[in-house]
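S1.2 Input.
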Amino acid sequence: MKHIHIFVWILCACFVSVAWRQQAVNTGRNWSEFHRANMMRWKVYEHVLDVNNVGNLGLKWSYTTKGQVDSSPAVVNGVVYIGSGYFQIGIVYALNARTGAKLWSHKLAESVEPAPAVADGVVYVGSGDHNLYALNASTGTKLWSYTTGDWVESSPAVANGVVYVGSLDGNVYALSASTGALLWTYTTGDWVYSSPAVAKGVVYISSHDGNLYALDATTGTKLWSYAAGGGSSPAVANGMVYVSSTDGKVYAFGLK
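S1.3 Output.
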């Protein structure tokens, strides 16, 4: 990976931390992972930015990392968590949300492309070194790691004390959020770079084998699958599952 500098731009009129957690705590203040419990990505608790003032956004700060930034940020309790990568080094950063000052960084053996998930004071993030890491959200200290068989480009989801994540080794993993112990795996037919959506005891995830899967969140048992061509991370809302595909289609699934 080329050694280049990428700016993490934070644009706001008055910065408000926005994130959601799978287990709703301080749901109006944080944006803690790729999906929240009902899969919605809009910020219903935003009270500052709207159609009348968003045109007045101005740059408040930027932070120069040591490499390319493909990771999406998570914002929790006034801290921005983000990953980057250069050459064969990955770094997870924690930045002050109002000033951009670095609070801590944690170096990994390969790039960090997926978005971190933050829950109960822990940052969960995957890396190209095949590992999923759990870092202390306040200090960056490694709490545990779990080694998969290939790159982890899937953004993890955290629900009910379990971390769900996919790997390019073709497996979906369920790990104890507190210890990293393996609870179950489900093997698909190809890479899993899709990020899981977890809703009402079901894990929804796509695989490069062309299928969208619904797995039992407790056991990993396959409940349903559909040959949707493989592709995006699914979204679940109002009794429907939505996913886009490499076949150029967008699919919506509901009860028969």
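S1.4 Remarks. The radius of gyration is 18 Å.
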